[in-house]
Design a protein that fits this description.
Number of domains: 2
Strand content: 15-25%
Distance between the termini: 52 Å
CATH class of the largest domain: Alpha Beta
Order of helices and strands: EHEEHEHHHEHEHEHEHEEH
CATH topology of the largest domain: Rossmann fold
Strand order of the largest sheet: 7-6-5-8-9-10
CATH architecture of the largest domain: 3-Layer(aba) Sandwich
Helix content: 25-40%
Radius of gyration: 19 Å
Length: 284
Amino acid sequence: MKYLILGKNVNKGVQGDDSGLLKEYFELGWEVVGSRIDLICLYNEGCLNENEITLVTIDDRMFFYTKYYNSVISYDEFVKLNVPQEDICGDWPTRHESYFGFANFRAFINPKTLEYVRKDKDFDLIFNGFDLDGAIQPEEPFVTMCIRKRDWCSDRNSDVSFYQKIVDGIKNKFPIYVAGKGNEEFCEMNGINYVPRLKDYVSLIKNKNCRCLVTQSTGLAVLALTCAETDIHLVDHAGASDINGLNAISGGKPIHFFSKGLTPYYNLEDSTAKCIIERVLEQS
């Protein structure tokens, strides 16, 4: 058996242990638009044999592939196998500079449409290829939020008081679900729902009852750009995104597969929070 590594977590990506070294902790955004999109291309071209190749990724991301590919294991399980180097047929986290399709703009982007060059062939699996069996499915209108609290590039984190204003403005109108590691206490304090599983987050932003997603510029935001079926309010006070550009890892146009609207905000002023609250309530 050969093994294809799409994601790994030598470090776990939690506060205090998230150095940003992709060879140790493969950040979500890189897998979303890097190894996942490249893997879907290989799959659709018939280059993978499930009897010969096992996919390896972080446990919380296995649902990215298990809907259509049977042989998928977690990176923790892979480590226990002590697989010899010659049986590793690909390692995206270690060789991301040379592996990723999006690194070659000419090959990745249709120059006429500025879309992913394989959009017609790969759209269905990119947009819908998630195994959401057992994921949360609220049956009443709700709002999803993402709040970043990582140590890596901490300048990208928002002052929690900004999100507190938004929560205060909408929590009496809609249930709120919050994704992002480290937000348990914030959710408990506000009586709102913490979302620990990535599978549940994807299920929420694809749910017809989701009124909108309010998110910072994070891997969770990049994931939403590829698959969300709700309006996206993207708060990018640190300028980490380039949604009008062509760089996929920065949230550029080639990976804009979301089905509804995208509204960017570039500061954390009270007027921004007020605008988001008003837009959310308008959608009720």
